[in-house]
Structures are given as structure tokens and as C-alpha cells.
Amino acid sequence: MVEDANAVILTFGSYRLGVHCPGADIDTLCIGPSYVDRDEDFFYTLHAILAGMEEVTELQPVQDAHVPVMKFKFDGISVDLLYASVSLLVVPEDLDISDVSLLYNVDEATVRSLNGCRVADQILKLVPNVEHFCTALRCLKFWAKRRGVYSNVTGFLGGVNWALLVARVCQLYPNAVPSMLVSRFFRVYTQWRWPNPVMLCEIEEDELGFTVWDPRKNPKDRTHHMPIITPAYPCMNSSYNVSTSTLRVMMEQFQFGNKICEEIELNRSNWVSLFEPYLFFESYKNYLQVDVVAADIDDLRAWKGWVESRLRQLTLMIERDTYGKLQCHPYPHEYVDTSKNCSHCAFFMGLQRKQGEVVEEGQQQQFDIRGTVDEFRLSVNMYMFWKPGMDICVSHVRRKQIPAYVFPDGYRRCRPGRPSNMQPAAERSPHRDADRNVSGSEDKILKRKRSPVRADEPNNPEKRQYISPQRQDSAAPIILSGQPLGPSVEYKPGVDNADACSNSSSVTFDSDESAACKEIDMSVSANLGNSNDGYSKEGVGDGSSQGSLSEGESEIYQQENGSLRSQNGLHEESETKISLSGGPEPGTAVELEPVEKAVPRAMVTSTA
């Protein structure tokens, strides 16, 4: 048995799909015989062997993850290594990973580990043109990273999620070139009616008894906001991490992409505009800053990974405790302050009041999240492998207080001035340029007529009201321990920094101020006037069951996604309702009809 003992290493993820790029990690799966287990042999014996190799650096076992993994760098190349023990004494070199018999007598963690390879193979089998699929997927993954919506752990979408979404569009348009697939991707998912699932094939039932995604039988599956179902048995929702807030952010970005692609079709824009980076630190007025510190770089690597995995819980806690009225936007990037005398990184989260919330004149709307932050810090500090020096601090920062180290050049860029045709220079307030969002077009800014009153009169802030159809925010203060707290807090490893952090934080929204100083965010506003017609021309709204809404659900959808109405005397502007089915049955195709101007047939490529 010792002489015949062996293991097989397979790849999955972007490497197996052929869409990996420089700097990306390689997802690998080690399949071993039944007598080699995960806990003792893989995470203890193999870990010790790898730790003694010169080529291996940054070795980090994540044994308690949803899918247990060993992370490390081999000769500078990042590798994620999973392990699956199958019911075989000898693992054949030509093992057929798609064979369902491999799932006999294995645990749930092994099934999830095996499904990485099984799903990748199924995707390649189910797309009509693998080359076009890979090119479109490369492009859209690059776009998602530029727009800040590529991160499964933060609550957005990871590599397999984007692959499944692109594969579904390839099924709908089997003869489309990559540039057309990218354009149709945004059209389809801008109008998709979540939580209707995206599926490449019918959900497969089997006698093995594993739980498959089925909201009719499993109450937990009904809580998923953006189900994207894997095509291999047992079918699972690959995007269970998505929350209400992250879904809202992704839908805004889909609308942004759809608008750019519509302009490209009309030769009013180019592909470069699609990949403009998202200006996160110019999109909100209030942010939560989560600082993570540790004694050394090795401790920080493990501690940071744990904290990042819990940020999604902070988003859910804030949504829960404010009844969804305070919306969060976790940003899936980490920033390092090299000036600190300890290993450090920071994460940021944008905050805004829910769109359409009405506050009575002269009153304040306050969100007290002190208990929420305390609960989050308590859950994070329960880390099983905590060491002295590991600490976390949550603080509130205004947009003007954002630390300089988050910007690419180490300093905040000057904001471009407002166009002269928008407002006379004499009427502009010095506060307005600092509070406006410059992430997109300003063609749809609504103007308010002001009375010719003096600027120094009481209750007359030198501000002017603007309302965006996509975001209504306020410049409300967040008070921490009675006083606004900026990013200048000193962190001392091993010392409780609770007094300096936001373990007592409240968010206050003033109705007068919010009416006078709204966020301007035209980057994600899309021309939805012809959305019904554009979708039905492609043959998607054919009354099929997938993506459709019942009459009762349609009424709820209209209530939740109805027209946004401006406040304080501004005229009303409504957006066209989108009533359509989410798509035809899995595997069916959509015939392309000619449009006025086709998307340039040049292949869409991306550079990482």
C-alpha cells in the first residue's frame, strides 16, 4: 500500500478556465486516498513539510474556512491548495473528476473542494464558444476589479460567479463576438430581476442525498439575494455572500456599464470609458475605517484575513440594526499606512442613508450603531488563533478626513471645477465642490431655483440642492464618544484601544442639511426609457419561468424600485419601470436582430 500510495493535483478556477492573468493565484486541488485525512495529514504533516522548503513563503493554513485551504507562495507564485480524500485506496492518474461516484462516503467539505474542478469542467462544456467566452470573461473580470465589485469574501462576486454570469450570456447569444457579449452582459443583468436564479442547466437531483439549492424546500435558500447556481451536482448557490447593500452597489455598476455600452453602440464613447476606475473616496460623505494591526507581518497576514472575512457580518449587522435605512458599501481593497510603527492595514466602508427616506423638516435622523460596532469587535476578537499585538479599531471619517495613504500618489487630487454652464462662478459655494461626486456625467443634474437672499442670513447655508436619481446622501455627522474622530488615532499593539475607537458611534442625519447638500452621482444613471423594448427585441421576455415575477411580486418590485421623487419643492422625475422576465430556460439561445449601429466587432481585450 505504501508503494502504491499516490495523490493527484488538479487545477480549477481562472487557471483551469484559461483566463488567469499575471499576479493571480493558482487554485489547485490535491486528491488523495481514503486513509490520508485532511486534519492530521494535510494540515499538520504536509504543512510541516512545506514550512521546511526554501521555495515556500507566506504559508498560511485556513483550516476552519467554508472550503479548507492552504495558502502559500511557491517561487513567488501564489497558490491556494485544497485537499479531498476520496473513497479509493489508489487514485488513478486519469481520474475522471466529473464522475459522481467520487462523492460516495465523503463529507461536505470534500464535496465543496471537489466541486471547484467539477464546476469549471461543466462551464467549459456548456458554453457554445469557449474562445469567445474566455475573452469576454477576461474583459469583465478586469472591469469588475476596476469598479470595485470583485471580491467574494466582502460580499460581491468572485471568479466563479463572474464565470457563471458570462457563461449564461454566452448561452443566450451563442453567435455573438466578445464585444457583443460584453454589451449584452450589462443589458441582461441590468434588467435581471433578482432573486430569480441564474442557471446554466437544470438543477440535478441524485440519490446520494446531498442538499441542493431549492428555495421551495430549504428556508435558508429563500434569504439569498443574488443566487448564481453552480452546474455540477450538488448544485449550490455560489453567491450566498451577497447582501442587500452589495447587491445595490453591483446593480449601480451594471447600470453604469450598460450606459457606456449603449454610447459605444452609437459611437459616442469608446471602450476606455468602460474601464474607468470607481472613485470610491469621492462617492460618499461618511465612511467607516477599520484599522487592523499586529505585532509582525506574519501575524498580520492571518489576522487581516480573519477580519476581512468578518466585514460582511458588519454590513449585515448595520443593515439589521438600522432596519435597512443606513446603507453600507464595503470596499474590497486594503490600504497600508507605512508610517505606523507596527504592521498595519485598513479597510473602508461607505455609508449613506437609504434612498427615498423622508425626514420631517427641522428634525434629525440618527442611527446609533454603537452596539453594532461593539458586537462586531467582540465577534472579531473571538479569533481562535489570536496573539498579543493583534488589534482592531473602527472609526468614523468624513470624506475630507480620508487619510492620504489611500490615494495612489499619497495625496488627494484636486477636484475639477464645475462647468461654467452649470452655475455662475459667483454663486458657487466652497463647500459644494468638496461634497460633489465626480464619478460620472452631469447631464441629468436637477437644478433648484433660489430666491435672491443674502448668504449671511440665518438658516441660509451657502449651498444649493442637487438630487441624483441614483443616490441621495447627506453630509450628516457621525459622532464617536461625543466628538468627531478622524484618522489620527494612535494604535498600540497589545493595548485595548476601545476608548479611541468607535465602540460608541452614532450616525446623525439632519433633514435641512440633507435637503441642501445631496450627493451627485451620475456615473451609474442609465437611460432606461427603452429597456423593456431593448430586452424583448432579443427574445428574452418570452414568458418563461426563469426570472419572471408573479402579480403580487411585481407589485412589491414596483414599490421597492419605483420612481425616486425629489424633496423640498423640486419637480419630480420618475424612472421607467422594467417589467420583464429574467431569461429563457437554461440552454436556450436568443436570435440576434440587427440594431441601428452594431457594436464594433473588434475583440475586447483587457490588460492587467
From TrEMBL:
It is an enzyme of class 2 (transferase). The keyword ATP-binding applies. Residues 413-510, 529-608 are annotated as: Disordered. InterPro entries: NT_sf, NuclTrfase_I-like_C, PolA_pol_cen_dom, PolA_pol_NTPase, PolA_pol_RNA-bd_dom. It catalyses: RNA(n) + ATP = RNA(n)-3'-adenine ribonucleotide + diphosphate. Residues 500-509, 556-569 have a biased composition (Polar residues). Residues 132-276 form the Poly(A) polymerase central domain. It comes from the Eukaryota. Residues 280-338 form the Poly(A) polymerase RNA-binding domain. Its cofactor is Mg(2+); Mn(2+). It is found in: Nucleus. One of its GO terms (cellular component) is nucleus. Residues 1-127 form the Poly(A) polymerase nucleotidyltransferase domain. Its EC number is 2.7.7.19. Keywords: ATP-binding, Magnesium, Metal-binding, mRNA processing, Nucleotide-binding, Nucleus, Transferase. Belongs to the poly(A) polymerase family. This is polynucleotide adenylyltransferase.
